[in-house]
Amino acid sequence: MFRKRGANFLLTLSATVLVVFFAPTAAGPGIPEIKAYLNGIDTPNMYGASTLFVKIIGSIGAVSAGLDLGKEGPLVHIGSCIASLLGQGGTDKHRVKWRWYRIMNNDRDRRDLITCGASSGVCAAFRSPVGGVLFALEEVATWWRSAILWRTFFSTAVVVVVLRAFIEFCSSGKCGLFGNGGLIMFDVSNVTVHYNMMDILGVALIGLIGGVLGSLYNYALHKVLRLYSLINERGKLAKILLSLTVSIFTSVCLYGLPFLVGCTKCDPSISKFECSTTGRTGNYKRFNCPKGYYNDLASLLFSTNDDAVRNIFSTNTPGEFHSVSLVIYFVLYCILGLFTFGIAVPSGLFLPIILIGSAYGRLLGIAMGSYTKIDRGLYAVLGAASLMAGSMRMTVSLCVIFLELTNNLLLLPVTMLVLLIAKSVGDCFNPSIYEIILELKGLPFLDANPEPWMRNISVAELADVKPPLISLRGLEKVSRIVDILRNTTHNGFPVIDDDVTVPSSEGTKARELHGLILRAHLVAVLKKKWFLNQPRKTEEWEVRQRFSWVELAERDLDFEQVAISKNEMEMYVDLHPFTNKTPYTVVEDMSVAKAMVLFRQVALRHLLIVPKYQGAGIYPVIGILTRQDLRAHNIQTVFPHIAKTKGREKQK
Amino acid sequence: MFRKRGANFLLTLSATVLVVFFAPTAAGPGIPEIKAYLNGIDTPNMYGASTLFVKIIGSIGAVSAGLDLGKEGPLVHIGSCIASLLGQGGTDKHRVKWRWYRIMNNDRDRRDLITCGASSGVCAAFRSPVGGVLFALEEVATWWRSAILWRTFFSTAVVVVVLRAFIEFCSSGKCGLFGNGGLIMFDVSNVTVHYNMMDILGVALIGLIGGVLGSLYNYALHKVLRLYSLINERGKLAKILLSLTVSIFTSVCLYGLPFLVGCTKCDPSISKFECSTTGRTGNYKRFNCPKGYYNDLASLLFSTNDDAVRNIFSTNTPGEFHSVSLVIYFVLYCILGLFTFGIAVPSGLFLPIILIGSAYGRLLGIAMGSYTKIDRGLYAVLGAASLMAGSMRMTVSLCVIFLELTNNLLLLPVTMLVLLIAKSVGDCFNPSIYEIILELKGLPFLDANPEPWMRNISVAELADVKPPLISLRGLEKVSRIVDILRNTTHNGFPVIDDDVTVPSSEGTKARELHGLILRAHLVAVLKKKWFLNQPRKTEEWEVRQRFSWVELAERDLDFEQVAISKNEMEMYVDLHPFTNKTPYTVVEDMSVAKAMVLFRQVALRHLLIVPKYQGAGIYPVIGILTRQDLRAHNIQTVFPHIAKTKGREKQK
Question: Where do the CBS domain residues begin and end (chains A, B) (predicted)?
Answer without folding.
Answer: 579-644
